[in-house]
Amino acid sequence: MTTLALSSYKPNVDDPRVQQRLQTVLQWCKPMIGQKRAKSISSTTLRMTFGNTSQPFGRWLRSNLLIQVGGYEVGKSSYSYYLNEAGYKKLCTFVGVSPQTSVEIAVELFGSIISGEVAPEYRDSGTRRYHPIQNLRREDRKEAFSGGGWFDYDIDACAATLVYQYAARHFKRTYPGAAFPFPAVERLISKKIETRHLVMILCGISLEKAKELLQSIFFMAPLTPHSRCSIYRLLGEDRISFEKLKQDSFVKALVADLRKMWRYAILADQHERATLLISEGRYAPQSRATSAHRHAIYLRLERTVMDAIHEWFGSEYFPGILMHDGFLSRLDVPTCGLELFVEQATGYQIKLKKERLGKLL
């Protein structure tokens, strides 16, 4: 993560033009408060909102308000940004505004959805359906939806569960008499809490970071002591913690099993996609970069399961809010029945966690 370096420059906040510009920029930044994912922002939008960074005031605004992450590719992707919430609060004091909490902003932005008056309209990428409400932090979502009779349904260990079953299915077709494969991955799923605590204690990090680290390992992020590697950054670039992680017997077994699992998952996906395209009279697709291919496989499996969940409700529009690997609903859903329906419809065994966010109306 990077921010523009702060200089000794200070704007004249008593100037009405500066006040007006600050209010406009703060209003633009408000939806970014409490968002768990960085927002991709084009350079054109940044210039129009914050001004040119070659000018002191534009540079001061961006250095106080934005934290840059990710990469930039010409014509493909822009840098992404988180809001510097400490800087946002500081600038609010300059214009005499009491900064709203992330929950207050969520209720302001999505109040009609939370009340059930309006159904969210999603942007469908073909794999996931997107809506800004999905980007709320979990704790903010729980508070914003409390009191409205909402239930939160989450597919337990969704990515690991689906990809593991998909790869194991292909493995068993190839070797019908073989023992069940990838035991370390199965342990990651069935003993999720235990493995997270193992990594937390081993590396001296928080439970949330241990969860994120295991997710990175699952998608085969490199175990390399370099600042560009996500796992090393999660460990605070601590070489001792990194070596402890890398040499742990379970982590070694997990990485070895994950290599095998993804090999079978990718082979199965390539075969299915090629078969489909050839049956339609089209050429088989070119292979994708391995990292992108892994995520594409998971997103396809996730969408398959989420479509089955939607089908179970039997309505054209989803009666609630889709959350990628789960959903929110005011309906008290019998999870066992829904899990059975998903297995019958897709072949995947899932476990749904249900949490009541508020009192029924």
Can you describe what's shown?
Helix 8 crosses helix 13. The protein has helices at 16-29, 43-50, 56-65, 85-94, 102-114, 138-144, 158-174, 183-190, 192-203, 207-218, 230-234, 239-247, 249-279, 290-313, 335-346, and strands at residues 39-40, 66-69, 80-83, 123-124, 129-130, 151-155, 321-322, 326-329, 352-356. The model has no long low-confidence stretch (mean pLDDT 90). The chain starts with 15 loop residues before the first helix and ends in a 5-residue tail after the last strand. With 361 residues, the chain is α+β, with helices and mostly antiparallel strands. Helices cover 53% and strands 8% of the residues.
**Biggest sheet statistics:** 4 strands, antiparallel
Helix-strand makeup class: alpha+beta
The rounded distance between the terminal residues' Cα atoms is 43 Å
Helix content: 40-55%
